[in-house]
Structures are given as C-alpha cells and as structure tokens.
Write a structure and sequence with these properties.
The chain has helices spanning 16-23, 28-35, 39-44, 64-73, 92-102, 145-149, and strands spanning 52-58, 83-89, 109-115, 134-138, 142-143, 164-168, 171-172, 190-194, 201-205, 211-215, 221-225, 229-232. The protein is an alpha/beta fold and 233 residues long. Helix 4 links the parallel strand 1 (52-58) and strand 2 (83-89). Helix 4 packs parallel to helix 5 (92-102). The protein is elongated, with a radius of gyration of 21 Å. The N and C termini lie far apart (77 Å).
Length: 233
C-alpha cells in the first residue's frame, strides 16, 4: 500500500518574523494584498504588526487622512516599527497624527518626502528619541530649534541616536547653529543637506562624521571638521 504524500505549504507556515522580513521591501498596500493569499496570513493580520511601513505615492484625494491614522491605531501595543516611510501629498493634520503615533513604537528609521497643505511642525518627541537612527526629511517646512528648547526636553542633547541625517527643502527660522551644535548628534556618521534655507554661514563640527554632502545651499561661509568624505555643490 502506497503511503499518501500530503503536500505541505512551507511558505504559509513560516514564522511571522520571517514573513515580515521577506515582505519588508514591499509597500504597505502590497503587504495587505499579500496577506490575502493565505488563510493563515489573513487570520494573523500580517500587516497589523509589520515593522516596515512604506506608504508611497499618496495623493491629496486618496483618503489617506482617514486611512493612515486607522492603520497605526489598530497595531498591537507591543509591535515595534522599524521603518516608517511616507511620500506624496498629505494634510499637515494627518502627518502630525502619524508621526506622533510612530514615535511611541521604538521607531528606528523615518523618511518623509511629502508636501502638506499648511505649516507642519515636527513633534518634540522626535528630537529626543533614543531609538531613531535614520532621519530623512524632504518637505518645505520651517524648523525652529529654539522653540523646541522651550518644551523642557529631558535631555539637552537632540537626536541622541541618529547616525544618518538627510534634510531637503527645509528652512531654519533662526539658522542652523542650534541644530548643528557639537552637543547634538553624538553618533552622526552621514549628513546630507540639499536646497535648505535659513543660514549663510554653516559650521559642521562632528568628529565622528564620515560622509558629508551639501547641495544647493546659499552660503557665504563654510567651516567643516569632518574626518571622512565630503562634497559641496
């Protein structure tokens, strides 16, 4: 008598952590669609606890103002977010809610490439996050570091864990000296500034800096103390 071979779907039975890793390069919409391919994945709501959230190509009429906050609010309280990526058009109110919520889930990387309908202010929790290592901002907003000092942040050091910083199209209200103080960014290794406004004299003094890229800045003076590669256009 022949033994019947029972076909087994090994991919479906993979641990959730490994499924997260396999689907991590996908945008969030594709992760949700992938979850529907398996009864187990659908039952687990694979997307609810996924650590990599990529919301790309959002439009002002996509309904993201309701969709994004709901997605973030239904996540399990113990689920961390490794990467949070937004690109496209989004209201300032929705963007504020989203950033506030991801800051409570041990975020490691934030990438915002967005245009908002009005002025957006970065939340104070972003400046003293102990888990945030990569911060990339491409958005036409004004940044007032002196204002955040008035919030009574527990640590005088801003961005204590950030090792990679990329700022594009930002404007500093009182210049960049407060942000690029030697007491901030104690772990900074890579700094990219492109088309930023608000200063004519720039001092970069981070002994551990390895890569510095400056592009489209209107500078009269530039003072750099960097140990690695740097370029200026």
């Amino acid at each position: 008598m022949k033994k019947e071979r029972i076909s087994r779907d090994r991919i479906t039975d993979l641990p959730v952590e490994l499924l997260h890793h396999i689907t991590s390069p996908l945008p969030f919409k594709s992760i949700v669609q992938t979850s529907l391919l398996s009864k187990r994945w659908n039952r687990l709501r694979l997307w609810r606890s996924h650590p990599h959230l990529d919301f790309s190509l959002l439009s002002a009429h996509s309904g993201a103002g309701n969709f994004l906050p709901e997605v973030l609010s239904c996540r399990p309280p113990d689920s961390n977010i490794t990467t949070f990526r937004l690109s496209g058009c989004l209201s300032a109110a929705c963007l504020q809610v989203c950033v506030d919520r991801v800051m409570n889930q041990r975020i490691e990387q934030i990438e915002l490439d967005v245009d908002t309908d009005c002025r957006f202010e970065l939340p104070p929790s972003l400046f003293n996050c102990n888990t945030l290592g990569v911060l990339k901002l491409n958005m036409g907003v004004k940044l007032n570091i002196s204002r955040y000092r008035g919030f009574g942040l527990p640590s005088p050091v801003l961005f204590p864990a950030v090792h990679t910083l990329s700022l594009t199209r930002l404007c500093s209200v009182w210049g960049w000296s407060d942000l690029f103080s030697p007491s901030n960014f104690s772990l900074l290794r890579k700094l990219c500034l492109k088309d930023c406004r608000g200063t004519y004299d720039l001092n970069i003094n981070f002994p551990g800096l390895e890569i510095l890229e400056l592009d489209g800045l209107r500078l009269r003076g530039l003072d750099i103390l960097a140990l690695g590669y740097w370029s200026y256009k």
